[in-house]
Design goal:
mainly alpha; Methane Monooxygenase Hydroxylase, Chain G, domain 1; about 85% helix
Length: about 210
C-alpha cells in the first residue's frame, strides 16, 4: 500500500513539474507575440492556457484522491497542500499569459513597446517562474528565497514602465490606447511575478512546514 502511495505522490510531483513547464512556455510565447508581433506565438499562448487548465483539473483530482483515500502523514500532507497551492498559482499564470497574448494582437504595429522596459520585465518574471519550479524539483530553500527577493525587481520595473508611459504621453498623446494596453500588460507581468513568488513560498512551506 505504501509503495503505491509513494508512486501516486511521484506522479503528482511530476505532473506539477510538467504544468510548470507549460506555464514557462506560455510566458515565452506571449512575450514573443507582444514584442515581435508573432501571430503563431499568440495562438500558441492562448492554446496553452487550455492545456494548463486541463492539467490543473487532473492534478486537483489526484490531490483529492490522495487526501481522501490515503490519509497522508504530516510531511506528505504538506507536499499535497503545497501542490494544490502551486497549481492554483500556475493556472493563473496561464490565464495572464493568454491575456497578454490577446492584447498583443492589437499592438503589432505599435512603436510604443520598443520605448519601454516591457521585454526586460517579461524576461525577469519568466526566470522567476523557472527558478521557483527548479526550487521545487531540487528541494532547494535558498533558490526559493532568491525567487522571493526578485519580486522587488519586478515591482521596480512596473513602476519604471508606468513612469516611461507617462513620459511618452507627455511627448506624444496620439497613442493613448497603446499606452493603456501596455500598462495592462505590465500589470499582468507583475501578477505573474507575484505568482512565482507565491510558488516559491509554497516550496518553503513544503520543505520546512513554515508559512511566510
Amino acid at each position: 500500500m505504501r509503495k503505491k502511495y509513494e508512486q501516486q505522490l511521484r506522479t503528482l510531483h511530476d505532473g506539477l513539474i510538467q504544468m510548470g513547464a507549460l506555464c514557462e512556455e506560455s510566458i515565452a510565447s506571449a512575450a514573443k507575440a507582444l514584442i515581435h508581433g508573432d501571430d503563431a506565438m499568440r495562438r500558441k499562448a492562448i492554446a496553452l492556457e487550455q492545456e494548463i487548465n486541463l492539467a490543473e483539473h487532473e492534478l486537483g483530482q489526484q490531490c483529492v484522491r490522495l487526501l481522501l483515500l490515503q490519509q497522508p502523514m504530516a510531511g506528505d500532507l504538506r507536499h499535497i497542500t503545497a501542490a494544490q497551492r502551486m497549481m492554483s498559482n500556475l493556472e493563473r499564470v496561464g490565464d495572464q499569459a493568454a491575456d497578454i497574448a490577446e492584447i498583443s494582437e492589437y499592438m503589432k504595429n505599435s512603436s510604443v513597446k520598443s520605448d519601454i522596459h516591457i521585454a526586460e520585465m517579461a524576461k525577469v518574471v519568466r526566470k522567476m517562474l523557472t527558478l521557483s519550479i527548479d526550487a521545487f524539483v531540487k528541494k532547494d530553500i535558498e533558490l526559493a528565497e532568491a525567487v522571493i527577493k526578485q519580486d522587488d525587481l519586478v515591482d521596480d520595473l512596473f513602476l519604471k514602465i508606468k513612469t516611461e508611459l507617462v513620459e511618452y504621453l507627455i511627448r506624444d498623446n496620439s497613442n493613448v490606447q497603446d499606452c493603456l494596453d501596455l500598462l495592462m500588460v505590465a500589470k499582468y507581468f507583475e501578477r505573474i511575478g507575484d505568482h512565482a513568488e507565491n510558488i516559491a513560498e509554497c516550496v518553503m512551506y513544503y520543505l520546512t512546514g513554515e508559512i511566510k
